[in-house]
Write a sequence for this structure.
């Protein structure tokens, strides 16, 4: 009996040592579930299920870097924070005026033996999810990223719509093919699997290389970053950086991907102090008008084209044209732009052009 209990104890130790840590978070409606875990080698992984069905099987997380900087392995969880956020905000221009930003967040704080700190921030919405990396490497004067390990291991094959991976252009014909037949793709990569539509993309892409996807076998994909000429993927001065959000939009119908506000919600808030100069108006015949103003910058090296009109005043086209210089002056002062002169002021009167 003692020998049997001893064998059970050894089995328990071996099994418990295989999974070091796991945490999970669900969407506000409970339909989407994400699990973060460290495997037996302390490699970071995540997986996603929708309802009771696996959607993304365990997939690696992390980055590789030069000069011995560790961004992927040997991390241990220090603590995990959970928050819920729900707001409705107004955008001055776009398909929808009011955008609801409702998610559950799980922030996993990790550290390795060299005291490198990493926060993996997961946000789960009712229509998908996003996650990003926030690194702090003590004592580093620069970080040279050589690869991203982020994987998207799709649980079931299905139909996909994508264009080939290309760092120079998005003006390519899209392909319709099984997910497993994609060799590489620009994002967004859209697909249907298990009765659900989904799209892999990114948000808040600022001062970071764009992400494409590379097939690593079957329906498994890995992030491939656009490189510098010397092969380095990303350069950072100092010892800290945060990445764009890696996003997966999920919807029961394709139109749900179009109507999703997930990427808008994950983008950084507007940096302008005021946006009341971004607006539109309607004439008496209900045709939308747009006043297009083109400025030459102070350096004279480039031009900035913007659109503005003031719906608070009942103006005719002639009056708007007459007031264009004054409106331009207000625009410049409120937006913080530096402009020498107004080089063009024209009215675009057709609805189609105004909506372009």
């Amino acid at each position: 009996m003692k020998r049997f209990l001893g064998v059970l104890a050894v089995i328990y130790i071996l099994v418990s040592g295989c999974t070091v840590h796991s945490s999970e978070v669900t969407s506000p409606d409970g339909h989407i579930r994400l699990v973060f875990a460290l495997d037996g080698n302390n490699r970071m992984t995540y997986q996603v299920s929708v309802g009771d069905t696996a959607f993304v099987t365990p997939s690696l997380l992390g980055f590789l870097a030069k000069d011995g900087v560790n961004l992927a392995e040997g991390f241990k969880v220090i603590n995990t924070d959970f928050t819920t956020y729900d707001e409705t905000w107004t955008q001055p221009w776009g398909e929808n005026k009011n955008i609801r930003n409702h998610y559950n967040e799980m922030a996993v704080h990790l550290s390795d033996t060299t005291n490198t700190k990493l926060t993996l921030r997961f946000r789960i919405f009712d229509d998908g999810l996003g996650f990003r990396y926030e690194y702090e490497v003590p004592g580093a004067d620069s970080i040279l990223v050589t690869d991203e390990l982020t994987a998207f291991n799709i649980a079931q094959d299905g139909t996909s719509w994508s264009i080939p991976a290309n760092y120079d252009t998005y003006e390519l014909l899209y392909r319709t093919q099984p997910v497993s037949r994609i060799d590489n793709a620009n994002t967004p990569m859209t697909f249907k699997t298990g009765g659900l539509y989904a799209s892999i993309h990114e948000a808040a892409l600022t001062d970071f290389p764009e992400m494409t996807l590379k097939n690593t076998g079957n329906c498994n994909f890995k992030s491939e970053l656009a490189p510098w000429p010397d092969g380095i993927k990303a350069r950072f001065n100092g010892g800290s950086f945060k990445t764009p959000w890696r996003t997966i939009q999920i919807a029961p119908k394709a139109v749900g991907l179009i109507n999703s506000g997930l990427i808008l919600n994950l983008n950084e808030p507007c940096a302008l102090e005021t946006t009341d100069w971004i607006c539109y108006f309607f004439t008496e015949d209900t045709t939308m008008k747009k006043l297009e103003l083109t400025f030459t910058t102070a350096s004279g090296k480039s031009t900035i084209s913007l659109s503005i009109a003031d719906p608070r005043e009942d103006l005719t086209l002639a009056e708007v044209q007459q007031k264009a210089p004054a409106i331009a002056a207000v625009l410049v002062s409120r937006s913080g732009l530096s402009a020498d002169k107004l080089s063009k002021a024209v009215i675009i009167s057709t609805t189609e052009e105004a909506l372009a």
Observations:
- The chain is about 15% helix and 45% strand.
- The two ends are 78 Å apart (CA to CA).
- The longest helix spans residues 317-335.
